[in-house]
Each structure stands twice: as structure tokens, then as C-alpha cells.
Design brief:
about 80 residues, about 80% helix, 2 strands, two-stranded antiparallel ribbon, alpha+beta, elongated
Length: about 80
Amino acid sequence: MTANTEGSSTGQTTSSKLLGLAARNWIPLVLIVVGVIFIAQNTQHVRINFLFIHVGASLWLVLTIIALAGVIAGWFIGRNRLKRK
């Protein structure tokens, strides 16, 4: 009976590791694909107001800049977390 309990807990650990691996690899890839599709479909020209700056630009360009700013911010946050450990 002990062998069955150990086997099932090992199976759960292995499956949770596989699920974690899939989540770490596939979820970011799916989000990137969805983001690229979203940016590609929004090509209108828009007026951007930020503080005292008023600029006209393509929406895809604005979305790309904001996405890159988010990636850079996430990279800095991740790098700082690694330094703390």
C-alpha cells in the first residue's frame, strides 16, 4: 500500500512539473502570437496625447512601442529579482 501511495505522489509531481514546463513555454508563445495579431489588425492613424505632447501616428506603431516598453520593464524586474536571490 505504501508503494502505491509513493507511486501516485511521484506521478503527481511529474505531471505538475510537465504542466509547469508547458505553462512556461507555451503560454508566453501564445501571448506573443495574440499580441502580434492584435497589432497587425490595428493599422489606423490615431492622435496621441501625452502630457503636453500631441502626436499623430499609426496605431500599430504605438502598440509596438508600448509592447516593447512592457518587455523591457519586465526584463528589468526579472533581473532585479535574480539579483536579490
